[in-house]
Amino acid sequence: MLLLTAGFNPFTAGEGDFEPPTIGEFYPEVIAFEGTPFALNRIMLIRLLVTTLLIVLFTLWANRFRKSTATGQFVPGRFQMFGEISLNFVRKSIAHEQLGEKDGDRFLPLLTTIFFIVLGMNITGIVPGLNIAGTSVIGLPIILAGAAYVTFIYAGVKAHGVMFFKNALFPAGVPKAFYVLVTPIEFLSTFILRPVTLALRLMMNMIAGHLLLVLCFTATHFFVLYADGAFKAFGLLTFTFGFVFTLFEILVAFLQAYVFTLLTTVYIQLSLADEH
Amino acid sequence: MQIIQLAAETVTQVSQVTGNLGVLGYGLAAIGPGIGVGLVVSKTIESIARQPELAARLQVTMWLGIAFTEALALIGLATPFIFAA
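The joint structure predicted for all components is written out below.
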């Protein structure tokens, strides 16, 4: 309604029409290698860029840490401090807290990788030139969820052998007759829903955030440039909302990285736990 | 006779709903998780008020609870795209 009164008439729509974002946002045109499995579009290029940056960042950090212990310079500089804080965040408050020191350090490489990949890919959703999250198309979330899935099953099988599956599907303390009900539910929730929800949660958060941001900023563009008269003021409103929502998206990027890593850790912990 | 015909026409016209059913579906799907997340956070606030020394531990559990309940709302957002004919 507002758009109609603001001058957008769908029957005479011309150059200045408002096109709300569609799901096509996540299927940009292919830039290179069209037709092959290695087709590159904007989202793939963003993923490659973030992967490269992460590799560079971690190499620099590793060199810095090694240099500081080798030369005995124990007062960290700013870059080293930043690295220590970030890596200790995953190590202490996620891995050690949920899994304890020994197991926490055992699974730490996977958890750190998951955390930083998700964080790096999510944050590109608000970076001005890139503007779309690398995790907003299903491929990458599926891979990360798959890694978490394989890891918690591996952890369970390593700790308990084949009994892991028996303990997971036939929990102790349930009267025998109820296993007809409980086992399918347990199977569904443990072996199917866990990876699926991990992937979907991450992807849908990024999709919803991106669509909302695109909506705000295209609405601002439309109102400021193509609306009649007093409706231009709505451009300011949508711009403010877009700004505030960008800050919210930064929070969501961190939060989704934290939640993904935390859930992986909790699933590993549940697999390792001894049955009472 | 004519009145009945007119009434039938009006009824058939009024009963036509247009628009996107997926949007309606998501709106309905978001009710449950909305209440759910509210419950999780409110319980966490209560528990932190009762035992402030456990705040960090409770906060971690809160994020876990929010992630699980919010997953359903997000799957509701995804289903129109999955079942797009």
